Amino acid sequence: MDEIGGTPLHIDLRRHLREHDEDRDLTRLICEIADASKYIINSINTGDLGVAGTSNLYGEKQLALDVLSDRIIIKRLMHSDVVANIASEERDDIVVVDADCEEKFSVAFDPLDGSSLVDVNLAVGTIVSIYKGCNLLQPGRNQVAALYILYGPRTTLVYSTGNGVHEFGMNSLMEYTLNQENIRMNDGPAKVYSPGGQRSQYSLGTEKFTQYLENGGAKLRYSGGFVPDINQVLIKRSGLFMYPHLKNAPDGKLRLLYELNPMAYLIEQAGGAASDGRRRILDIRPESVEDRAPVFIGSKEAVAMAERCIAEFDA
Ligand code: AFP
Questions:
Q1: Ligand 1, closest atom to CA 197?
Q2: 249 lines ligand 1 (CB under 6 A)
Q3: Which residue, 257, 262, 198, 263, is CA-closest to 229?
Q4: How many CB atoms sit inside 10 A of residue 204's CB?
Q5: What would you report as the CA-atom Rg of the chain, rounded to the nearest whole angstrom?
Q6: Residue 162: what pLDDT?
């Protein structure tokens, strides 16, 4: 078996899940989502870049790609036969697939995060959060799995089921094979930082924290896409992404169910941290599928410093 640094290569996603003795239904679910991404890639490369003529529950104009990606994933989730409830960032209500839900999974997903970047040919992604049972409105610490798929120069998939964080690359046969497993963030200061929101709207605490990052030599890397920005922090094993509380948006911008919980689960599994500036993202109990929260996510040391600056300057 070919290996680099102890990583057995060419192992495909299904085999990796099986070799990690993952639940058979969870394996099936994750592989269905991976398969859906093949159709999303095709849509991104050849599809309609225009608007769909509809808006989502946040009043945002939906792109044709948003609606198409949402439909592709919903169809696969239903086809899996192991899903009970589905919440999509592009839909107003939770889709109830099976009321007999205790033994099945409930899934929250953002079908094409950063879709407004496709027409300028920047990287975008799909983000998925998985819970056992019926309830989607529970703290993120109860997730049984999370993953994202990054549609960039290469297509990669990163997942965790609570046994480490693993990255797969799509090969020429459109299969996902292992690139690296058990990814661990390095300790120490953040090497890169991705500051979301307008700096003029930053609180004093966030401004002091941003200066701390810059004085510590962190390089600014912000693409406007949560998935590529988090992927950079994870694969470089160092960095900090933030979309903080703003004077004109106290809850920040990003959504707890579809964006923050799955990414916080992955980054914590890799030895990093995720906070809203005052508490652990994964301990927040959502009140509705629409909930947003400020976020500081990445290297543990940087997240701890963000909390210190906010406690000291944003009382
Ligand atoms: P879109 O899906 O509207 O492009 O927003 C992308 C996103 O949710 C997330 O991927 C980015 O990190 C963040 O919003 C970018 O927000 P700004 O455009 O305010 O920088």
A1: 19
A2: no
A3: 263
A4: 13
A5: 19
A6: 96
